[in-house]
Amino acid sequence: MTIEMLTPNIGTGAMEDRERIDYRSLRAARHDRVTALMDRLGLDALMLGREANVRYASGARRLWTASSRPFGPTCVLVRSTGRVHLMTFSASYEGAPEEVPFEDVFCNSFNPVKLLEALVAIPDLGRAERIGVDGFSVFMRDFLPNAVHNATFVGVGHDLQQLRRDKLPGEIDAMRIAISIAESSLYAAAREVGPGVREKTLQAAYLDRMCTLGTSQFAQQGTFTVVAPDGAIRWITGDGALAEGDLVVLAGGALWAGYEGSLARTWCSGESTPAQRDLHARWQRVIDALVETARPGATGTDLVAAHEAAGEPVPPMPIAYSVGLGHEGAIAGTALGPSFDREQRIDAGTVLALRTHVRGGTGGYFGEDMIYVGADTTELLTTLGSGITR
Amino acid sequence: MGESTTTDTAAIDFARMRRQRRARLQDAMRAAGLDAVVLLGPSNHQYVGIGRAFADAARVHHETVTVVFRADGDIHVWTPFPEAVVDVNPAQVHRELPLEYDEGVDALLLAVREIVGATGRIGFDELTSPMLARLPACLPEVEVVDAGLAVGPARLCKTGDEIECMRRAQHINELAMYDVEAALRPGVRQNELSAILFRRAFELGITWSCIDPIWSITPPARALGTRTTNGDVGFPLASNDRFIREGDLVLPDTGIVWNGYHSDFGKTWICSVDPKPSPALRDCYRRWCDVIATAYAAIKPGRSCADVARDVGAVEAEYRLQQFYLAHGAGCDSAEAPFIGSELGPEYEDTVELLPGMTFVLEPVIWVDGVGGYRSEEVVAVTEDGYERLSTYGYSPFE
Predict the structure, then answer these.
(1) What is the complex's ipTM, to 2 decimals?
(2) Which among A94, A221, A239 has CB closest to B237?
(3) Alpha carbons B268 and B396: distance in angstroms, whole number
(4) Is the CA virtual torsion A294, A299, A300, A304 positive or negative?
(5) Cα dihedral A64, A130, A164, A104 sign
(6) Which chain A residues have a beta carbon less than 8 Å from that of B146?
(7) How far apart are CA A380 and CA A376, in angstroms?
(8) B326 pLDDT above the threshold of 70
(9) What's the confidence (pLDDT) of residue B217?
(10) With a CB-CB cutoff of 8 Å, which residues 106-135 of chain A face chain B?
């Protein structure tokens, strides 16, 4: 059984008979949830700087960047007025949702005095006593009290992360599109796997296909690396060429409307051997066990136990994490060990990435899938097959 | 290109580059009185020679890599990418900590206490949400200050190796852009241009892309474009699947990165079956050439950032978009200090002296409302007696 989709038709274009995703309703529903969270936490205002939270609360389509984006209050919600104030990097109103009026957009400035002026001009913000933030720079810690004199700042990043984990139906549909793009792009790279092909060329093939399909925003820039003879994997794509019989990790993700679709497979350069196919079978056994175990109420400890019961030691990496508007926190297998895993509970409505890495005398297999955990059912969202079984 | 040495560029010694950067950071930490810095920002990791995979703006806030750098040069790293950690004692390379959780922050701060001590002055470049409460609780005696006090001065002037990295990054970006410019014909979509850029740039060995490629379609008059908070031209606008059509003025802006160093490519192109600028638009380009020549002539060690802006201002009163500047620094970040002709104003910019090794992206814009405008970005390094261009791309279809 699969969960009901608002549209059974996954594609990136508009259709004349119905919206594939009703973004206006989605934005409104997310905003209502954020407002309810503010009430629950007793917040007079929220100052957000993390892209996922800004997108969730405001629906803004902003210029995508990777690398450093130090915290800045780029989205401000004031509870008393109900208004959302958005910072623009281009001075432009383009990319702001229609429910945020032009008057509530302010321009980024490299001059702190001008930024201060913009914040002071936000109605009622100066009266806020309790303000939630999702991060800080030390500069902002020292600077923001100039704009809001009497406020206490509270870190609410974790609360927002928990809020984002419980997916609305429209969010799942956006993730299905992102996953479809990621799968199509990963397979485009897979079809170029062969002796003499360089790792960078696989990455280039992946990104080429992803952009051609309509988004140039990737969830991560992908791992396209040859597996070492002892099964070890590298994460950073290099310049080396594949040899006949090499195993190669293909991992990538794409964003659609900010939502992430990611997956990983291990492919074989040429015909796979029985030993290589056995690695895949061992990986599949673990993933099947994890999918089976990832039910509402299960904890990270349950996932670790299921992994071990499938006959494989847990690799030194998180084996489960929540996904939505990007990464939403690890569930199992972090460096913090069993005490952390015990505290991480899977709730209905969550989308999880499940992954593992098995190693043997002839190499290793890494793969990752995404699932939706419903109240009564679990659905495997990623469907791409494995080239190693050919 | 790729990892190989070419005849037209000097060889890069990555070990020397790591050594020199770490030494500069140590000097800057001593000058700022810092006992250690705790670095969460990817560009700061890159600067101290800790490689990592890159993520997007949403994933980057799942802080995967943490570096504790002590003033005596001792380095501890928490990372999921141990393969990219070089010249660090392997016993001090640990698994990543989930810093979006109290437990992860507590584990980090406990380690900081052991490595640096329970007192002293420590710079942080970013604070995750749980750090707001956990820092005062776990390190009550530590003075938490901005890591930028040390990282900023250290990163201000580039070593020879750093400049060569920037040259490579710019070179690959430009090579890929030849393919893109050839594809800029009526009916192409913005996302298709991104596909061409990425295919070529990654095949040429680029490390990653740090900004969604921009193909801003810019109407000839402000009133015809997007509404803006300052009344100026709205730029840069995020790309999507928009068609680019006959006669569109397209302002590309891309930033792909090679071994941690940023390129910056900005031009003004015309999408057409037969791209030919109007005489009025060509005049904007000529005036832009005068501005850039004036800026080049003004760049000399010993002069201030404000001096350069003043010289250019004497030639053209309006030489930038209001939301930007005449020039920004570049290096491990696409835009970093120092700034020239910015909102910081001449009084501040007069305090910043041009020094050999500083690298800038000059991005003047000449705009004539109703006609359109000309914008191009030029990457330069300040030398002992002037400047050196790192950009080499031409100015078609204006030349």
Answers:
(1) 0.96
(2) A94
(3) 8
(4) negative
(5) negative
(6) 137-139, 142
(7) 14
(8) yes
(9) 97
(10) 106-111, 114, 133-135
